[in-house]
Design goal:
This protein has about 300 residues and is an alpha+beta fold. The protein has 2 domains: about 170 residues, no CATH class; about 110 residues, no CATH class. The chain is built from 10 helices and 11 strands. α2 packs across α7. It is globular and about 60 Å long.
Length: about 300
């Protein structure tokens, strides 16, 4: 065991997931204490939109989404399930862009599911990513406090504009969920002199969160200082939930063994970080066969408390 995050009493209520907190730690980025991650700034680099916003303007990601009304709560559905077409996104964007401009916000569309907005008030706004809030009541995950008041006012206007929009009426006619909100996340600041200690291994951000994947791709576009650690990210939860668990575990085992084997062959060592629902922990691997830790270590010891 190399290091692990201390237990947190508020682990279930933290705005950032353990994966996000570990990434801030590993990338030597600020934001863990304030729970603000600069995913918007990094993703904007990958999407070629960084220059569209002043460097000192706080930035956020916006994901078109559907809030499902329950008996006594609102639940955030998986935005990817919207299957939002580019033409639909453009029309919805065009309908609300004047609202943003009038309120003093900057708004850009990168992909149907990834929009960017900039406003001074975002400097103090704390948000939860889609992975944190998805499938749960959003009451505890909506940006709150005085800093988020400009956003809440603007979002109300957006929701009213979209309520009877032609795109949503057509979607409802086809039996599809309407787009009734924008989910804000990734508002942290990126220090101007920051240099990443890691580089992504090709397109190896195997995560179901497209915003986080875009942020990791942005690492490749920043200046580098010497050799960097190579980062591979595996979304085990998504893999296990989307296909047969036995097949998924075999794929995960093969992918991990290949990645760790390559690291051991090239560098003589590897670090394996496990991030669960509560916290993360990192193990150091040095021997060629040591990656198969479950052959010698009781699994409860490895996964306990995650």
């Amino acid at each position: 065991m190399l290091e692990q995050e201390p237990p947190r009493e508020d682990a279930q209520a933290a705005w950032l997931t353990p994966t996000e907190r570990w990434l801030l730690h590993a990338l030597r980025l600020p934001g863990a204490e304030t729970e603000q991650a600069p995913w918007a700034r990094l993703a904007a680099l990958a999407d070629g939109l960084s220059a569209a916003f002043p460097a000192d303007l706080p930035l956020c990601l916006l994901s078109p989404a559907h809030l499902r009304l329950g008996r006594d709560s609102l639940t955030l559905d998986d935005p990817a399930a919207l299957d939002l077409a580019a033409k639909e996104a453009q029309q919805l964007f065009a309908a609300v862009e004047p609202l943003f401009v009038e309120a003093g916000w900057s708004l850009r569309l990168a992909t149907p599911m990834r929009w960017y907005a900039g406003h001074p008030s975002l400097a103090d706004v704390v948000t939860a990513g889609v992975a944190r809030a998805q499938g749960r009541s959003v009451a505890a995950w909506m940006p709150g406090g005085p800093a988020a008041r400009p956003w809440r006012q603007l979002l109300t206007a957006v929701q009213m504009t979209w309520q009877h929009h032609a795109v949503n009426e057509a979607r409802e006619h086809r039996g599809l969920p309407d787009v009734n909100t924008l989910w804000m996340h990734g508002c942290g600041a990126l220090p101007p002199d920051w240099r990443s200690p890691m580089r992504l291994d090709g397109d190896a951000a195997e995560t179901a969160d497209p915003a986080l994947a875009a942020a990791l791709r942005g690492l490749a576009l920043l200046p580098r200082n010497g050799s960097l650690d190579v980062l591979r990210l595996f979304d085990a939860r998504s893999l296990l939930l989307t296909q047969d668990p036995v097949v998924a575990l075999a794929q995960l085992d093969d992918a991990l063994s290949t990645a760790i084997g390559n690291a051991l062959q090239q560098h003589g060592a590897a670090r394996l970080t496990l991030a669960g629902e509560l916290r993360w922990r990192t193990m150091q691997i040095r021997r060629p066969q040591a990656w198969a830790f479950w052959r010698r270590t009781p699994l409860p010891t490895v996964f306990s408390g995650l």
